[in-house]
Amino acid sequence: MSETQAAKPAAPRRDHPRTHHGDTVNDPYAWLKDPEDPATVEYLKAENAFAEARTAHLAALRKSIFGEIKSRTQETDLSVPVRKRGWWYYGRTEEGKQYGIQCRLKADGDTPPEIEAGTAIEGEEILVDGNELAEGHDFFSLGTCDVSPDGNLLAYAVNYSGDERFTLRFRDLRTGEDFPDDIPNVFYGGSWSLDGSVFFYTKVDDAWRPYQVWRHVLGEHEDKDVLVHQEDDERFWTGIDLTRSEQYLFIVSGSKITTEVRYLDAADPTGEFKVFGNGRVQGVELSVDHQGDRFWVLHNKDAENFTLGWTPVEDTTQFHEVIPHDEAVRLESADAFADHVVVSMRRAGLSQVAILGGEDGRLTEIAFDEPIYSVGLGENPDYDSRQIRLGYTSLVTPSSVYDYDIDAAELRLRKRTPVLGDFDPADYVQYREWATAADGTKVPISIVAKQGVTADGTAPCLLYGYGSYEHSIDPYFSIARLSLLDRGVVFAIAHIRGGGEMGRQWYEQGKLLHKRNTFTDFVDCAEHLVDVGWAAPDRIVARGGSAGGLLMGAVANLAPERFAGVLADVPFVDALNTILDPTMPLTVIEWEEWGNPLESPEVYEYMKSYSPYENIADVRYPSILAVTSLNDTRVGFHEPAKWIAKLRHESPNSDVLLKTEMEAGHGGRSGRYDAWEEEAFNLAWVLDKLGAAQIALAE
């Protein structure tokens, strides 16, 4: 069937009234929630067929973009080895294989070994080969891959559906043989005891909330496992971790705004965990790390942007402040090593890393040359190391691995992700712009373009946004994005309120009853790009995913005339109905982010005023592509399915598509080649809506 002949799927409308606070609303597409209903599956498949037919004219472009991604990627590659005790650990990929391979080498010295991708590596031990584990499955995900402190044992967890419930297994690295222990339905992560005899893991409840920590003795049957901690407050998740010093185990329970930590000597895995400090205090968040005779503590009690100090191990209620609160600097984390602490922070919209070397609070910040960039602590499992592994990137600089030598105060570039072909960072330029929101707030925008693309008001633009959970979308490099830039597209990130780019107050101004700031900021950023010439008025496509998908749905309702297209990845577009249903995965946890519309009429009316599904009108919407996954446990597939069905009914002249991955979860398809194909589909659609699909790559 040709593009013009393709029949639009029509989801049957069924009465499903909802009544809250005296408001009765009919939800005619509520039946789409059931993935076991044959009618639901049939509808999703029909939508997939329709999306394929409607984009058939882009098949050659999709193939070209996939080829561009593949040709620029060094398919056989390896990471910079990371030292832990007597081993160097690294991952590698091989051309033609979908998944990574986790490996190690015996350590000799502190300098990472010079090993070359694609060659035989003498002495290499393979811990886990994802390709072998994935054989015969359409989806594969590795939930944990954790070597015991003595280096002899491996805990690893596998999932084959995308629903983020894993089967935990154990391997003897001395023999390569797996133990008979097989523990189903575990969550990400977990921790070994110091002697490797015990592994702690977490389980989720029916709402997919990690709420239990269990203790498993290696070699014993799962039935003998002991429940160590259960978090009964449905606002809280829980997890367990082993400190870098390997001296303490921490059980951390956290809601969106409150944290409680319990600790235990890692040499005594059957002992009782103690509550840290003053325990759970509503509205107080903290993180804890161990160093010698003290715990380093980052907290926000009477300190909106957090303060850093320490407590004696013997009395965790005695807090000694080292870095005081600063309204201009958001302290994000503190990682303790044997004789220093690495502090990650954020200032003026940019991430920073500094070394704290003494009790006087003296900080040594690590400087970088680019005007906008992203830097963060990499893998640093060695407690005694005097070199700090950092990850660095920008809009024009591929992901880079640095070691910072503390004694020499020197950065050493260990690796920069290769980009094959004729890529040259100098061919691209990056800028920082500041849009003015309706209330006068200055909102940062990061911009990248090909050299020669000027702010003359004619360029097509892809504007990306997120704006929730204090999650910052920092400038980052993307090989796939080059397929846009080389066709003259400007790429921009709107660092809108609700994220954390400008500190804790930036987040507070974009949540709960201030959530609309997130959406209006994004529209104001789009307007600014037009005003300063970085985007043609009729050539902007908006993109966002998950909570950023809520943003997409909201701005499509708020300013449909502003955008030529909206690409919504796994979008949270039925926000009100989901947050009203405490049986849905993670809903109760979300009440501190969005408010509780079950209890508050004000929250109910406010959410109803912006929830995308609730506010569809008979207007001409921009072209919309919603991409989702059948096994997504974070944002149910039914949300975009209902949204597209209702859009098609209420606005029959609008161009809307739904594409559902039938064997995937929140992150989409799992294999790297599959992921490239998925992204090629998305980018071809974007180029089409920007009027740039026929533009050949620059010579």
Automatic annotation (TrEMBL):
Location of the Peptidase S9 prolyl oligopeptidase catalytic domain: 476-691
GO biological process entries: proteolysis
Region (Disordered): 1-31
The keyword Protease belongs to this UniProt entry's keyword annotation: yes
UniProt cross-references to SUPFAM superfamilies, sorted A to Z: alpha/beta-Hydrolases (SSF53474), Peptidase/esterase 'gauge' domain (SSF50993)
InterPro entries the record matches: AB_hydrolase_fold, Pept_S9A_N, Peptidase_S9_cat, Peptidase_S9A, Serine_Peptidase_S9A
Entry GO MF terms: serine-type endopeptidase activity
Domain spans labelled Peptidase S9A N-terminal: 9-415
Gene3D superfamilies (UniProt xref): alpha/beta hydrolase, Prolyl oligopeptidase, N-terminal domain
Family: Belongs to the peptidase S9A family.
Domain of life from the UniProt record: Bacteria
Name of the protein: Oligopeptidase B
Keyword vocabulary terms for this entry: Hydrolase, Protease, Serine protease
EC number: 3.4.21.83
